[in-house]
């Protein structure tokens, strides 16, 4: 079968790949010892060759045929052309190295260049790029330097622009920061000059291709089975839940997992800055904010999306993260027939989460007293689940607290379950146990009314919940 696209013929008198006579070999004394070659120089030579061959491929192939080929066919054609160019360039490579090199060139053409293999590695959670010469990855909760680099700032900028262009966003000197998402749903953030001093900064938070279930989180030790059953029951019983935690603590993963207990008969509307939630229900309507255009117009904020969502007949509204003035509209929704709504928030403790909500409502500039705001929060929110990333990289649910109401001008809370740290291992691993506080949650009555039974024996504070269910 003939190729669907081929190298263009060079015009008469021009030959980019013509054979030239090799210069005579230098004296033996001046020939460098390959064993003493620096690995970094070899890597830079290969990176330069890859970019050079990539440029030649763009010149040589018929780009109009690219869209007609699927990925497999396109990869075969690129491999054939790269192998031919490698021979003409007289690059010293064996067959396996040519295949690896061709894959890298293909990624440079259609993917994300040097970081494409990192995105394909399911064991990597985060990719952190600090300029073209430094790429870190997080694996198993630990940061490590990755063996990949970019040629220069311009090379990295091309990859950044390729990503943001696919989702209709832009990044330039006038708007040097951008949030976007990759085709697999991974979260992407970039900052470029003038705010990035030493080259473009990129952070990619990868998400599992198969969303983590609550059972997998239990297996990973994030929480004991009884805590997972209680949270599942509360979400099923339409108890409004806020998931609180710091950056990288697993808030979005936990929200995805808990959402699996929502009835498939409910209509869910999700609102995010960059769509990344992976809900498993069949009836999900997804909304995404929009940044301003070149003229500074057309911006659509989360608050506007929340207001519009209430006109779309939702059973529950789910915010990927509440971070500003939309907090008031979210509380209004939770208090007007949309119980069971969920959101995440950046905070270090459940009490801090309440304080942050008060501050975000104040950001809206509404003329509402503190007491009225606290009353809204106390009546809207049922549970606050605190997720934390420990020093050894473990991610755990360290607290489940219930908002019980108001006493005077203070929002009252009671902790149902908590994680007690008991020690540290020789390699820095954190040891601890989940325990109940001994208090019976008010939302248990609603769970029982809906036929969701929970063994009240698990509220015994003397039990190590992890050991009891091991």
Could you explain the architecture of this structure?
By secondary structure, the chain is an alpha/beta fold. It has helices at 39-60, 71-89, 95-110, 116-120, 153-166, 214-219, 225-236, 251-258, 302-309, 326-334, 350-362, 370-380, 443-449, 465-468, and strands spanning 124-130, 135-139, 142-145, 177-181, 187-191, 201-205, 241-245, 268-272, 284-288, 316-319, 342-346, 383-389, 395-407, 410-424, 430-436. Residues 1-40 have low confidence and may be disordered. The protein contains 14 helices and 15 strands. A nine-stranded mixed β-sheet has the order 9-8-10-11-7-12-13-14-15, with helices on both faces. It has a six-stranded antiparallel β-sheet with strand order 3-2-1-6-5-4, with helices on one face. Helix 2 (71-89) packs across helix 3 and helix 11 crosses helix 12. The chain is globular.
Features:
alpha/beta, 9-stranded mixed sheet, globular, 6-stranded antiparallel sheet
Short overview:
The chain has 470 residues and is an alpha/beta fold.
Content of β-strand: 15-25%
Structural class estimated from helices and strands: alpha/beta
What is the count of DSSP helices, taking H or I runs of 4+ residues?
14
Beginning-to-end CA distance, first to last residue: 60 Å
Low-confidence segments = 1-40
**Strand order of the biggest β-sheet:** 9-8-10-11-7-12-13-14-15
Helix content: 25-40%
Helix and strand sequence: HHHHEEEHEEEHHEHEEHEHEHHEEEEHH
Number of DSSP strand runs: 15
Which word captures the global form? Answer: globular
């Amino acid at each position: 079968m003939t190729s669907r696209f081929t190298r263009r013929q060079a015009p008469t008198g021009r030959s980019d790949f013509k054979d030239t006579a090799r210069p005579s070999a230098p004296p033996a004394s001046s020939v460098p010892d390959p064993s003493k070659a620096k690995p970094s120089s070899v890597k830079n030579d290969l990176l330069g060759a890859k970019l050079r061959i990539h440029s030649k491929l763009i010149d040589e192939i018929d780009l109009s045929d690219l869209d007609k080929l699927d990925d497999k066919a396109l990869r075969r054609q690129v491999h054939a052309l790269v192998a031919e160019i490698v021979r003409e360039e007289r690059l010293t490579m064996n067959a396996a190295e040519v295949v690896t090199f061709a894959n890298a060139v293909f990624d440079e053409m259609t993917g994300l260049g040097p970081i494409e293999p990192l995105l394909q590695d399911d064991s990597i959670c985060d990719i952190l790029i600090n300029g073209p010469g430094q790429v870190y990855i997080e694996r198993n909760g630990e940061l490590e330097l990755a063996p990949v680099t970019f040629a220069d700032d311009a090379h990295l900028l091309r990859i950044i622009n390729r990503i943001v262009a696919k989702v209709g966003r832009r990044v330039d000197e006038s708007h040097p920061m951008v949030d976007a998402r990759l085709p697999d749903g991974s979260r992407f953030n970039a900052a470029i000059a003038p705010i990035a001093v030493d080259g473009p900064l990129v952070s990619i938070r990868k998400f599992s291709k198969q969303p983590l279930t609550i059972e997998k989180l239990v297996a990973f030790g994030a929480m004991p089975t009884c805590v997972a059953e209680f949270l599942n029951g509360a979400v099923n019983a339409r108890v409004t839940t806020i998931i609180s935690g710091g950056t990288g603590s697993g808030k979005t993963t936990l929200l995805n997992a808990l959402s699996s207990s929502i009835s498939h008969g409910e209509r869910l509307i999700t609102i995010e800055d960059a769509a990344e939630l992976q809900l498993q229900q069949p009836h999900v309507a997804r909304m995404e904010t929009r940044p301003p255009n070149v003229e500074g117009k057309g911006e659509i904020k989360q608050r506007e999306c929340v207001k519009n969502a209430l006109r779309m007949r939702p059973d529950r509204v789910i915010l990927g993260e509440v971070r500003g003035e939309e907090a008031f509209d979210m509380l209004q929704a939770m208090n007007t027939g949309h119980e069971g709504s969920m959101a995440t928030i950046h905070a270090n403790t459940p009490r801090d989460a309440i304080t942050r909500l008060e501050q975000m409502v104040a950001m809206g500039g509404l003329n509402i007293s503190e007491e009225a705001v606290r009353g809204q929060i106390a009546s809207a929110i049922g549970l606050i689940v605190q997720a934390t990333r420990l020093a050894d990289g473990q991610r755990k649910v360290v607290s489940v607290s219930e908002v019980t109401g108001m006493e005077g001008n203070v929002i009252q809370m009671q902790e149902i379950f908590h994680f007690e740290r008991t020690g540290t291992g020789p390699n820095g691993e954190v040891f601890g146990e989940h325990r109940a506080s001994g208090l019976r949650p008010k939302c248990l009555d609603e769970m029982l009314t809906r036929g969701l039974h929970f063994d009240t024996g698990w509220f015994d504070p003397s039990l190590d919940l992890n050991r009891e269910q091991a």
